[in-house]
Amino acid sequence: MGEQPETEIDPATFRRIAEIVYQKAGIVLNAQKEALVVARIGKRMRRLGITHFRDYLRLLEESPEHEEPVEMLNAISTNVTQFFREPKHFEHLAGWLAQWRQEGRTRFRFWCAAAASGEEACSVAMVVRENLPADCDVRILATDLSTRALAEAREGVYAASDMKTVPEAFVRRYFVCEQNESGRRYRVSPALAGMITFARLNLAQTPYAMRGPFDAIFCRNAMIYFDDTVRRRLLDECWRLLRSGGYLVVGSAESLAGLPTGFRNVAPSVYARL
Ligand SMILES: C[S@@+](CC[C@H](N)C(=O)[O-])C[C@H]1O[C@@H](n2cnc3c(N)ncnc32)[C@H](O)[C@@H]1O
What we know:
Shape: globular
Strand content: 15-25%
Low-confidence stretches: none
CATH architecture of the largest domain: 3-Layer(aba) Sandwich
Helix content: 40-55%
Largest sheet: 7 strands, mixed
Bound molecules: S-adenosylmethionine
Distance between the termini: 60 Å
Radius of gyration: 20 Å
Mean pLDDT: 96
CATH superfamily of the largest domain: Vaccinia Virus protein VP39
C-alpha cells in the first residue's frame, strides 16, 4: 500500500484551493471548512495515489477543465438530501397544482436547481402524479453541479433506508422493488423517471442556458454554500426564469431577507414572483 495522504494542509494551499472552489462553483470555504477540505480532498488524493496537498493543487491547476476540477467539485460538494425533505413545501406544491388546475392550465414546468441524487425531483414528480390527470403536459428539469450525484439520480435506484420518508402507498405506486444479494433496492418507475430530465448546471455561472418560464423553482439548501454576490446572481436568474405568479422555494434554513429581489415571501422559505 502507498503512503496515506497527509492529514494537514498548509495555509497557502488551503487558500488557493478555496479560491479555485469559489471561482468555479461559488462555494465559500472559510477557515472552519479546513477539516472538511482535508477529509474530502484527502479521499480524492488517496484514489489518485497523491500524498501532499500541494501536489494535488498542482494537478488541479494543470488539469483540463472537464477532468480534475469536476472531480474536485464532486468531492467538495455536500449532496445530502431526502425524499420529501421539508414536507411542507410539497403540501404547498399540491395546493398550487389544485389552483392552477382550477384556472384550466394543463402545461407545467418545474426546475429543481440543486437536485443532488434526485430525491427532490422524484418527490415533485410524485406530488404531480397524485394531483394532476395523467394527460397534463409536465416536465421537471433537475440540475446539479456534481456529476457523481447526477449519475446516481439518473440511475434512479435507492436503498431501502432512503425510502423511510416515502409514504408506503407511494413506494408501491412509483417504485419497483428489486432484491439482490446486498438487500432490497427501489427503482424509480419508468412513468416517474420519464417526467424528469437531469443535467449539469453550475448555479454560480450566470446566465443559465435556458429560457423557462417555470411554474416553480426548488432551489433548496444550495444557497447556504454561497456568498451574497453569488446568491444575488442566482436570484436574478430565478426571477428571469419564473413566470409571473410562479414560486421560488428555498431551504428552510435559507432566506432572501436582505437581498434586493422582487420576490414576495408568501410562506416560510416560499416566495412568489409577482
Ligand atoms: C445539500 S444538497 C441539497 C439537495 C436538495 N436540494 C435538498 O434540499 O435536499 C446541495 C446541492 O447543491 C449542489 N451545488 C453546490 N454548489 C452548486 C453549484 N455551484 N451549482 C449547482 N449545484 C451546486 C451540490 O452538488 C449538492 O448536490
